[in-house]
Amino acid sequence: MGYEANYIHPELKISAFTEHFHKSDVLFETHLLVWIISGETKIVQGGQTHRFGAGDTLFFPRHELVTVINYPKDGLRHQSVVMHLSDKRLGEYYAKHRVDVQRVARPSFRTFDKHPLLQSCLASLVPYFDLHEPLPEALAAIKIEEAMTILRTITPEIDHILADFGQPGKINLADFMEQHYMYNLPMTKFGYLTGRSLTTFKRDFKRTFQTTPQRWLTEKRLDLAHYLIREKKRRPSEVYLEVGFENLSHFGYAFKKQFGYPPNAGAK
């Protein structure tokens, strides 16, 4: 995989990717605050693609689907500081800072660009990764609380995300799948995100779409790829990851089987 993670504390790490690129469809169990040191990150969510580079700060809400593609750039591997904002840590924080939480329907990732407060906070962690022992809990708690205070200062409405400890409830299956079919996740995760057990998810899916989840997902992903290649003149090597395929050869085989010609012919 070409991935390295250096933890100085269970909630603080530096992540590094050394391959040409690394793509993952992720569902984070905790909120994440990420500061990019080097390399480039492409985020695909809600049918939109965003690019970020060194110095940018990103926030990923827990339990939200997002595609993350990390690339080396300018001869430097992709490297970032990652801070996990756990439910336990947030629960302790909001026990001292009471807020009235309003449920946010579907929070998406946020970018704070190169905000100086967040940059200085997260950059100050970098020297600690040279330690040969774990960061003391008291010091880690200070740095994490500093980051949370900055987030609340520059984006007060983020309280409604950080202080919401509820689990996903049962939602409209058709609406959710139409918005998230390009994410390559186990069926159990799709079920969890729609508030269903795996058995109930498959039953409701068959009733809604008149087919199996895997067949429907493959057709939807191929249709999106076909549109991007034919209408948007994108290269197959660019789109196969974005639409939910993990392997370019498998994508080419499935595309030709569906449309009768290979994807590179569709780009002409």
From TrEMBL:
Record bears the keyword Transmembrane: no
Domain HTH araC/xylS-type: 171-268
SUPFAM superfamilies according to UniProt: Homeodomain-like (SSF46689), Regulatory protein AraC (SSF51215)
Entry keywords, A to Z: DNA-binding, Transcription, Transcription regulation
Any one Pfam family match given in the protein's UniProt record, by short name: ExsA_N
Domain of life: Bacteria
Keyword ATP-binding found: no
InterPro entries, A to Z: AraC_XylS_family_regulators, ExsA-like_N, Homeodomain-like_sf, HTH-like, HTH_AraC, RmlC-like_jellyroll
Annotated PANTHER family: ARAC SUBFAMILY, HTH-TYPE TRANSCRIPTIONAL ACTIVATOR RHAS-RELATED
Protein name: AraC family transcriptional regulator
Species: Dyadobacter beijingensis
